[in-house]
């Protein structure tokens, strides 16, 4: 336990130092980009990208820069944003799920959404693009440090690749294949990844548009919820929806109880950091949402009022959960039974 506390504390301090350093260099308006870059670095440490170093660096640079440009344009024109948001989220949703999980989708998708809701202009936009390019370079630098001279586990890679290929083949043998499956086959699109990419791009894009159209002050919480709950498989969506609601309610109750006792603004501000630190110990989605909710609600409550923030948070997240569950039922639904056929 002692080692875990030390390692988690070190990781948390590194994240704080990185984000603050990024903020100093690229400006306070780009601090959230720093958050997503350090998350990307940590997440991608699980993957060996050095096997195709130049190719992966180009892909990362392209992904980051196009996200920065598209989000900036979409922010200033919500109708053009329908096309741009759908395009970039479709790209993220499909290209980053090659191992049939959304581990890599989360940091890059959230990075795009964060930029969408923290628009910048002039020199700040230039700094944002430079920061995004720097982020891609830092990811590969960390990769080189970690995987330099290491032997690639080709057996494991082949197992993953074969699983994905077999999964596609199992769908091809389904006698009940519908029109969209036939279309996916025609263009050699992986069924699960394609369905997920279209679902997350379509629903998130519509949510962004409606929030913008109705000018909902904290409506971005609907967007973040929909993005987070859209899964490759239906069962995961239902489980995470329940956990997100539980985590949100528990987190809000904790903050309301703490703020009833704690009146000092400085101490309340420390709770924002406490939520982030406790998040390093979470092992499931519900507990992670409790910590995230504590940080977000504590932060917004400092200027918006605790009760008002709590009501808005629960309300918007409930809307997001309902929409995510509806979309999961109606738009290219995929169940785990498809994958279980391969085991």
Largest sheet: none
Q: How many separate helices? A: 15
What fraction of residues sit in β-strands? under 5%
Poorly predicted runs: 153-173
Shape label: globular
Portion of residues in helices? over 70%
Mean of the pLDDT scores?
87
Domain module tally:
2
Structural classification: mainly alpha
The ordered H/E elements are HHHHHHHHHHHHHHH
First-last Cα distance: 36 Å
Number of strands: 0
Report the C-alpha radius of gyration, rounded.
21 Å
Membrane topology: Multi-pass membrane protein
Pfam family, one: FUSC_2
Keywords: Membrane, Transmembrane, Transmembrane helix
Protein name: FUSC family protein
What are the defining features of this structure?
mainly alpha
Chart the SSEs and their pairings.
Elements: H1 2-26, H2 31-44, H3 53-76, H4 78-95, H5 105-116, H6 122-147, H7 154-172, H8 179-186, H9 191-213, H10 220-229, H11 234-261, H12 265-279, H13 285-304, H14 306-330, H15 337-340
Describe the structure.
α1 crosses α2, α2 runs parallel beside α6 and α3 packs antiparallel against α4. With 343 residues, the protein is mostly helical. It has two domains: 148 residues, no CATH class; 161 residues, no CATH class.
